[in-house]
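re: that chain from earlier
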Amino acid sequence: MLMLQRRDDPDFWQSVTGSLEEGETASQAAMREVKEEVAIDVASEQLTLIDCQRTVEFEIF
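^ sequence. v structure.
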């Protein structure tokens, strides 16, 4: 599991999160989110989708 330390609140850690953009597949979203969050380019052949949940509601504490 990858945890990110928030720049705006160094005491706050969170998992990598993301969402699908319109017309985007889960694999495309995963590649984009990895690039955005940790600046690593990932090829689709390197991905294995284990779980994907669709939701529009979430809370961050």
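Residues 3-40 form one domain.
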